[in-house]
Amino acid sequence: MDAFYASVEQRDDPSLRGKPVVVAWRGARSVVCAASYEARRFGVRSAMPAVRAERLCPQAIFVPPDFTRYKAVSRQVREIFARHTDLIEPLSLDEAYLDVTTTHTGLPSATATAEAIRSAIRQETELTASAGVAPNKFLAKIASDWRKPDGIFVVRPHQVEAFLAPLPIGRLPGVGKVMEARLTELGVATVADLRTLGGQALEQRFGRWGKRLHELSLGIDDHPVQPDRPTLQVSAEDTFEHDLALDDLAPHIERLAAKAWAAHEREAAGPHARVARTVVLKLKTSDFSTLTRSFTPASRPDSARAVADIACALRDRVQKPAETRYRLVGVGLAGFVESDSFAAQSDLFESFGFK
Length: 355
Prior knowledge:
By secondary structure, the chain is of the alpha+beta class. Helices cover 40% and strands 17% of the residues. The strands form 5 sheets. A 4-stranded antiparallel beta sheet has the order 8-12-10-11, with helices on one face. Strands 2-1-3 form a 3-stranded mixed beta sheet. Strands 4-5 form a two-stranded antiparallel sheet. The relative contact order is 0.08.
C-alpha cells in the first residue's frame, strides 16, 4: 500500500488531501509512523523523530495514529488477496507476498492478477497499492518499490540478471550498513561487482552467507511464500514522557510484561498452540541507542509475574554508566515452540530426572 496510514487519513478527511500529512503524536518523545508523499518531498520518513520531521516540514499536518482503522482497511485488502490465492504471507498491515502460480480466478498471468488486485483495492478502499511481479520473493519486494506510488513493475525470468546488475548492494536483503561497508572495502558497489567477485571468493571470506550473497546476485531465492508464518516474538513497549534511570524502570517493565503475556496467551490458545521460552528486554537510551538482553530459563515462563521478574533481572546485564537515561523500554517473549512438543519434552526430562 502507498503511504498507507497517511493515505487512510487523507481518504477519510478530504481537507488533508494534497497536503503534507505526518502520522505521529506531536512532541519530543514521538516518532513518525507514516508520511504522505507530499511530506516525503521534504525528507520526512517513517521512524524519524517527530521533532525532526517538524523541522524539515514546518507546514506538516500532524495526525495521531488510529490503528483500529488501519487494521480494518488491512483486513479489507487481505480479503481482496484471498479472492485470488490462499498463499498470502503478510509482512505488516500494508505489505504482503502472494504466490499466484495458480489462482482461484484463472487469470492468464501474474501481471494480470496484480492489476486485478490493484484495481479492486482502488475501487473498494479508495486507496492505491503498488505491486512488484517477479519469479521469487526478494525480487518481487525490490520491484514493488520501483514505481511507487500507484505503480506496477514486472521482472520476467529472462530479465533478472540484467535488472539486478546495476543495483547498489544495499538493495539485497540482509546487506545492512556493516556488510555494505565490508563489501565496499573489497571494491563492491553494485550487484554486478558482487557477481564478478564470484561465489567461491565470497564463500571463503563470508562462509555460508557468502554463498547466499552470490545466489542473490544471480536472482536465486527459493524461499516459499508462507501463509502461516509462525510467530517469532510478541512484545509491548512504551516511550516515556521523560527519560528515566535504569532503577526506575521496574513498574513499567511489570506493566509491559502483563501486556506481552496477554499476547502470548492468545498465541498459546490459537490454532497452532505455541508457547515461548525466552524473555527479551529492550531499552533505548536518551541518545537513541538500542540495547536488547534476553534469557531462556530452564523452565519456560508461566505467568506475567515470571516474565516481569526475568525482565527486571536482565537490567543487571546492561553495562552502561549509572547516569545513563532511557527513553523507551520493551518486554518481549520469543523462542516459540509448539506447546505439544514442549510438553512432551518436559515429560521426558522429568521422567529421566533432568528437570
